[in-house]
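Final paragraph of the annual report: two paired records, presented back to back.
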Amino acid sequence: AELIKYAANAFLATKITFINELADLCEAVDADVHDIARGIGLDQRIGRKFLHAGPGYGGSCFPKDTLALLKTAEDFQAPLRIVEAVVKVNDSRKRAMGRKIIQALGGDARGRTVALLGLTFKPNTDDMRDAPSLAIVPALQAAGAEIVAFDPEGMTEAGKLLPGIRFARTAYEAVTGADVLVVITEWHEFRGLDPRRIKEAMRQPRIVDLRNIFNPEEMRGLGFAYEGVGRPQPRI
């Protein structure tokens, strides 16, 4: 029973990590990871779930269970190289998201204001365990950025783990005066935000959407410099 639970969560973590790495390839070859996920998801042997590219998995189960499975494999001298790679790639991906945001700022985050929408590892919870924000925020702070964040439920817990953040009362307050807006957690209410109001409030109309909740064409049509995960960039 223990191995079944560990194996199930390790498999799902592998599936997430696989689509995240494909998202990087999609960006390199000007493809859309949504098309890839939709196509392979039609194969019933694969299925559509857990094929949403993003900043990496977190939470209470996947990180814990992948490591527990690796420890069991080590104890019994039966290495699981694929799971080892999944853990390593997922950890590095979270740090890479910080670099992605800095690159969107022209490679220099010093003195820039970064508005973060969402801090928890998933929506509808205040759970911060192994959330991508725990790697992204320190990377941005080390690069000299000021962080303003809003999360519907997670700010109390985030405040214990991420010192130096300024918390906003609303999403619109968070983006006011920001040089870039970053979506870390796909809270449903963020999808209903008025992009025109966001643009008017920001210092620079720039979005890094790590959950692909916005429509790229719509955002760019409104004048945003928009970057998602695994989505093609506009040709110049």
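The closing record of the year follows.
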Amino acid sequence: MPSLYDQNITMRAEHLFEVMSSQRFLQLQGLNNEIPFFIFPFKPEEQNEIEMMGKGLIKRLQQKGVHILKINLYDLSLSLLKKRGVLEQIIQNEPTFNRRELFEDLQGVLDTEKHIVPEISRRLSEQLFDILFLTGVGEIYPYMRSHNILNNLQSVLKDHPTVLWFPGKYTFT
């Protein structure tokens, strides 16, 4: 049987719906005190189809009474850059930056521990939800790394399952 990664999108959507709507998943049963982070890998070239699948999945889950909070990390990053008053400056100066300078500037302004996680935490406190979806991972790479975000979220997200939508194969090391 092919892995979930290799199945067609309809089969993956059905599998995700079955898992995410189950009481076992929602009540974090069987995790043995593990942090409830789940990675959903997909082929990067499927990004648009996966986005559409995700929207449909959210609707189906909501119809079943499961509330999703979706945070797109790219949109969150842009929001923080605007809020801190540096987005326009970065856009204007981007042609003169070399890649390393841009990388260092963005990493400093969008520090995961100091800026990203507190903003996610703020959003978590503003809405009731059952599952957190983290999307936009491909768009923030390499300025932010998904494993770094998840590591820093461990203290904030213990009571709700979190699904990271990951473009690419995800391997454990």
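The mean pLDDT is 90. This concludes the annual technical report; the extension proposal builds directly on these records.
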